[in-house]
Amino acid sequence: MADLDEIIYKADQFIDNCEFEEACHLLREYRDPPRYEILWRLANSLYYLCRDWYRTDKKRAENLIPEGFEVSSKLLEISPEKSPSHKYYAIFLGEKAGLSGPRQQILSLNNILSHIKTAIQLDPLDPFVWYLEGAFYEKLLRLQWFEKQLVYTLNKHLVKPTPDDALRCLLKAEDIRANFFYYNQYLIGKIYFDQKEYDKARPFLLKLANLRILRTEDDRRAKEEAEKMLAKI
After folding, report:
1. Number of domains observed in the structure of the chain
2. What is the mean predicted confidence (pLDDT) over 221-231?
3. Does residue 85 lie within any of the structural domains?
C-alpha cells in the first residue's frame, strides 16, 4: 500500500493544477478505511469536478452528487471537530436536496446554513466558508417573491438576508485571501451591479473581464458574466 504522505502529495498536486478528475481517481482507491486527510480531499475534488461538469454535462455532474454526499457524511462522522467536515457536508447536503425536488431543497436550508456557520466557527480563516455563507444569502436574495413566501413559510426561523449580509461574507473572504476564487469576486460584482452601485461593481468586473488564464468552468463563467454586466454599465 502506498504511503499516506505520498498519496496526499500526489492528490494535492492534482488539486493545485485543477486536475480534479485525476484527484478523484487517486483518492477513491484509498477511501477505505476512512481517513480524514483522504476524505476531505476527495470531497473537495468531487465538488470542484461537479462544478466544472455542471456547465458542460449536467447529468454527469449530478451523478457525482450521491458519492459526494456519502463521502462528506462519512467525513462528518469521523471528524466532526474539523471545519472541512461541516463545509463539505453543507455543500453536498444542498446538492442532494436539489436532486430531490424544491420542497426537500427548501426544507434543508436551515441545516445547510447551520453547518456552514459551524465550519466558520471552527476555521474563520478559511475564505471558502465565508464564500459559502455569502453565496447562500445571495441565492436567497435572487428568489422570486412567491418563492420567498414558500421558503419562509417552511423555514420560519431562517434568516432573511440583505445584500449587505451577502457582501459582508464575500468581502470577508477576499480580505482573508484575495483572488482565492474568481466566482467570489463575480458575486460581489453582481450584487453591487444589481443594487445599481456601478462604481463599486466596476473594479471587480474589470478584473474578471481581463482574466487571461481560465483554469475552470467557474473562471469562464465569471469572465463571461462580468463582460455582460460591464457592457450594460
Report:
1. 1
2. 98
3. yes
CA distance 138 to 134: 6
Q: What contacts 11, CB < 8 A, 6 or more positions away? A: 23, 26, 27, 38, 41, 45
Q: Is 188 contained in some domain?
A: no
Cα 178 from Cα 168, distance rounded (Å): 14
Residue 202: inside a domain, yes or no? no
CATH code of 54's domain: 1.25.40.10
What does the angle CA 216 – CA 31 – CA 71 come to, to the nearest 5 degrees?
A: 65
Query: What would the grid cell of residue 5 be?
Result: 504522505
Mean pLDDT of 95-114: 94
Average pLDDT over residues 133-140: 98
For residues 205-211, average pLDDT? 98
- Lowest-confidence pick of 15-24, 99-108, 218-227: 99-108
Q: Which domain holds residue 30?
A: 4-179
Report DSSP letters for 12-43, one per residue: HHHHHTT-HHHHHHHHHTT-SS--HHHHHHHH
Q: How far apart are CA 151 and CA 146, in angstroms?
A: 9
What's the rounded Cα separation, in Å, for the pair 3 and 7?
6
- Cα–Cα distance list, 217 to 21, 69, 87, 180, 189 (Å): 14, 22, 21, 15, 18
Cα separation of 175 and 124, whole Å?
A: 12
Taking the alpha carbons of 76, 185, 8, 25 in that order, is the dihedral positive or negative? positive
In this structure, the number of other CB atoms found within 10 A of the CB of residue 60 comes to: 12
Question: What pTM was computed for the model?
Answer: 0.95
The residue-averaged pLDDT of 49-69 equals: 94
Give the 3-state secondary structure of residue 212. coil
Q: Is residue 106 part of a domain?
A: yes
